[in-house]
Amino acid sequence: MPDEGIQAILQIRRWLPHLPFHRLSPAEPWAASPGRAITIVGDSSFASLELIAAVRRYVRLVTRLRLDASLFAPPPPRRPGQRGPKACKGHRLAKLTAVLANPATRWTRVWVNEWYGDEGRILEIVSGTAIWYHPGLPPAPIRWVLVRDPSGQREPQAFLSTNLDDKPEAILGRFVWRWRIETTFQEVRRHLGAETQRQWSDLAIRRTTPVLLGLFSLVTLWAGELMGDAATAPQPRTAAWYAKPLPTFSDAIAAVRRAFWCPAELSMSRPGQATVEIPVTLLRRLVDTVAYAA
Hints:
Elements: H1 2-15, E1 39-41, H2 49-55, E2 60-64, E3 71-72, H3 96-101, E4 108-112, E5 121-132, E6 140-148, E7 157-161, H4 168-192, H5 202-226, H6 249-261, H7 280-293
Parallel strand pairs: 1-2
Antiparallel strand pairs: 2-7, 3-5, 4-5, 5-6, 6-7
């Protein structure tokens, strides 16, 4: 993953040359407005010292951090006349597993609007800066954030940012935003066939995925318009083992299909007539079934 991740991130940097480069410390000035710097958010496969060393000067990287990662204090300043190579790290810090188990750890409670698709909840966090180091690999100055759920529903997790002056709440917020992007790509693959299309032309391959993502946006907008009418509003399709309080994309695309298949101007039956060839309730059930299966 590091090689592919490095190439992808540096390609994004080449695509957006007008945005400022990432600063490595609060004392280093930005080349332009700091609010538009590139932020890359990734899962645990992006938590690589090789990847961080290759991209940290170009982007801000936010990703997971192992609870048993080896963290160190910054190297002490060199004494006048001191010889030998410059130290890349200081003394060893307690691992995050020890911080988690230490009763003296001072936790801060924060409210998170959304946590892995769930509703907002209160989390407890503790944060600090350190040097993440492993023998044979370049050291990485990071800001780490340790998170635990007071309700005990989810396991404790740790995250990192290569920007040392990031606020812990901002790091969590950026990582939570990734959930929506992942869900979007998952729904596009499942319901619109992204990554399963078969073309021989390179141009067709490059065009298909953007078109499908655009179709996803159109379906979402059309479903939003249908929400204004109780008769056409997407209704969550639930099961005994899966209760949905709000419609998902499968409900949205089924509602849009029904709206296209049964436009009011093409309905020739009289409003008061209950049956034509089959009962109305059975016809609606068949249309709903096909709308989800199409």
